[in-house]
Amino acid sequence: MTSVNIASHLPSMAAKQPDTAAVILPTGRDGNSGLSSVRYTFEQLNNRSDAIAAGLDSIGIRRGVRTVLMVTPSLDFFALTFALFKTGAVPVFVDPGMGVKNLGQCLREAEPEAFIGVPKAHVARILMGWAKSALKTLVTVGPRLFWGGATLKTVIAKGEKVADYSMAETEADEVAAILFTSGSTGVPKGVVYTHGTFADQVEKIRRIYSIQPGEIDLPTFPLFALFAPALGMTAVIPQMDFTKPGSVDPLNIIEPIRFFKATTMFGSPALVNRVGRYGEANGVELPTLKRVISAGAPVPPVVLERFSRMLSGEAEIVTPYGATECLPVASIGSKEIIADTQYGTKAGRGVCVGKPLDDLSVRIVRITDDPIREWDEDLVLPPGKIGEITVKGANATREYFNRESSTELAKIPDAADGSFWHRMGDVGYLDDAGRLWMCGRKSHRVITGRGILFTIPCEAIFNNHPDVFRSALVGVNRAGDTEPVICVELEDGTPAGGAERIRKELFELAAANELTRDIKSILFHPKFPVDIRHNAKIFREKLAVWAEGQR
Fold first, then answer.
1. How far apart are CA 498 and CA 63, in angstroms?
2. pTM above the 0.85 mark?
3. What is the pLDDT of residues 441-485, one digit of tens each?
4. SS3 labels along 344-378
5. pLDDT interval class at 181 (50, 70, 90)
6. Which of 180, 184, 312, 349 is deepest in the core (most CB within 10 A)?
7. Are strands 175-180 and 190-194 parallel, antiparallel or unpaired?
8. Neighbours of 326 (CB within 10 A)
9. Strand order in the sheet with 175-180
10. What is the CA radius of gyration of the chain?
């Protein structure tokens, strides 16, 4: 089998553009209308990751060793990640924003043999007992306190004694990393990535967004930042709390874009919304940006329009659709959304996420909560019919780690070619033009005696009201039946005492649309519970419990 190692992009780029900055971390303002920073060139990042890889190998962190990496975004984070890939070790990435309980569960399931972290992460590991029975090797990035193991400094010293380090010749189907899902719409699960999966993702991102070596990227999600050096881009890592993108200081995004002349930015919808509001209020222009990539949740058209005003006429915001298990699946640009598909969204047709990528197969199948043991074309629904979105392609991951039942639920074996279809867990449909429309999570559909209601189409009707910030459809048990309830969060500044007027107007909107005319309960909630990492993924399960108590 052909050797594939996702880290091989780095030495290739180091040979092509050794003196180009690979990673830049702004450290503050320099007093002369500029930004001070620290950086690695491609050559420095390649050499540093070689030394770390050789040192890790010498202490037992090598091919196949599952290794938790809990290091804050820094030059060391990038060097360590590429070093782990070079050794053939399997880094385990867990988002600290998911909370202590979920973190512990994820690390128990991952059964890591090594742990690389900053002192704070090691203290938490000890206090919480994370994976204590499995861990054999410890590395501290920074000062080591009362625990054992090596420090990054000693690892590098060992590695620097090794001449001409050679990275592991991993194969395409060899495990490269375990990435845990966010847990915002279910239990966090460890998605098994192979080197081939990563390589296919890099190529797809390069191709669909026409990214060229030498471009400047400002990513606001650390793992997405790893794609930048692989694509030959300089990654500028902003100063922010990466677990709370919706609370970012807009200037910490705008200033590095301007100063370093960024051509690409990646951000969650909440971050794009916050920066866009600031830009609109202050007349900000960002002419160097060629593209803004926003993912993690649907981006409202008003947010796209607001941010687009800061961009040049040729640039736009692109919103790829996918999941940790398969990314990207489809992509659409803000110009098409603003000029066309937003009107379908407002009418309750769902959110258009664009045409599926050319080398992917997307089918809509009948909705079921049970495993599907074998692929059958009879499962497939015609265009326009809502069902579960399924995908087959090289960037679809094959399994979850240590979760056989979850894998069984999410994958459909295809005996025709020995491959499989991944069930996205989202519902939607394909239109007559071949575009994919998303209608919400399958688990969030509300099944009543009159039929099935889907979240995104129903909520869109209520979101048309100017005083509504967002809404959420939930199902509530009433006398043994499931009643559809719309929870509403109003815009800031809504006049006091206006709730009854708004409620009356919302009922009028609901009655005028066949999707929502059966909804007879509207509840106002002061502030929705949301995933802080996206500030757009609503915890509908919590809202349903709250609504249940509002009798």
1. 63
2. yes
3. 999 999 998 899 999 999 999 999 999 999 999 999 887 889 999
4. HHHCCCCEEEEEECCCCEEEEECCCCCCCCCCCHH
5. confident
6. 180
7. antiparallel
8. 25
9. 150-151, 137-140, 114-117, 66-70, 90-93, 175-180, 190-194
10. 24
